[in-house]
Amino acid sequence: MSTLLHIDSSVRAANNPNPDHDSISKNIARRFIETWQQNRPEDDYIYRDVGMNPPDFISQDWIGAVFTPPEQKRSPPTQRETLAFSDTLIAEVAKADVILISSPMYNYGMPAHLKAWFDQIVRIDKTFDFDLSRGDFPPLQPILSGKTLIIVTSSGEFGFEKGGIRETSGHLAPHLRTLSKYLGGVDTVYEIAAEYQEFGDERHRTSVANARDRAESLAGKLSE
After folding, report:
1. Domain count, the chain
2. By the 8 A CB rule, do 25 and 152 touch?
3. Residue range 60-66: average pLDDT?
4. Cα dihedral angle (59, 65, 68, 73), rounded to 10 degrees?
5. Cβ(121)–Cβ(127) under 8 Å?
6. Which of 5, 38, 129, 135 has its CB surrounded by the most CB atoms within 10 Å?
7. Is the dihedral angle over the CA atoms 33, 171, 160, 13 positive or is it negative?
8. What DSSP state is assigned to residue 187?
9. What CA–CA distance (Å, rounded) separates 94 from 121?
10. Is residue 50 within 8 Å of residue 89, measured between CB atoms?
11. Is the pLDDT of residue 37 over 90?
12. What is the spatial distance between Cα 50 and Cα 112, in angstroms, rounded to a whole number?
């Protein structure tokens, strides 16, 4: 039995009174989940919608608590309380075998809510360690391992892929790939992208349809 961790980050709901306002990334991710659960109904499923329920941003107190050794954390346990939610999120990542992250592109990058989630889980001695004896590269190494990551993205424009006309403007997928090592030494990242939303033409409809089909086929392949 596997554990699937699903993170949505759009501030839009999957279903709205006006269907034109439905989150594209959430609905593509939903297609993946539905297919997976049809094939593997016994698997554990953890869901967080950080778009609708954003994590707190980290703070000076949070950083102080992170870098305070456990035996030195102040009593009453205010520092432990400060890190309690972070501990919960990290436990979810640690438990997961497969991680699905859906995200729209906001201003050419990830939503602040998703970045806040990453900031809560990227913690020294929890998801990575730091050792200068390894030299300048890489002194940081992931602690977790053996996970598969699927990224679902949606964007208003197009051409953000390698070699695309907007390759240098797209910071969403590259940022997620960079951070993926902190999710568990991810070797393979599967990407599903829907584009052209702002154009609202046949290219957009085709892109969304293709993304949904890819989500279904990829879920079927990975859940075999």
Report:
1. 1
2. yes
3. 94
4. 150
5. yes
6. 5
7. positive
8. -
9. 10
10. no
11. yes
12. 10
Q: What type of residue is 198?
A: E
H/E stretch holding 102: strand 98-104
Which residue in this structure is represented by tokens 């051409």? 159
Domain that holds residue 115: 3-222
Paired tokens of 14: 């999957």
Q: Which residues contact 153 (CB under 8 A, 6 or more apart)?
A: 25, 102, 103, 104, 105, 172, 173, 191, 192, 193, 194
DSSP H helices, the chain, are 24-39, 60-66, 78-95, 112-121, 172-179, 202-222
Q: Which residues contact 178 (CB under 8 A, 6 or more apart)?
A: none
Q: What is the mean pLDDT of residues 115-134?
A: 95
Integer Cα distance of 115 and 50 in angstroms: 10
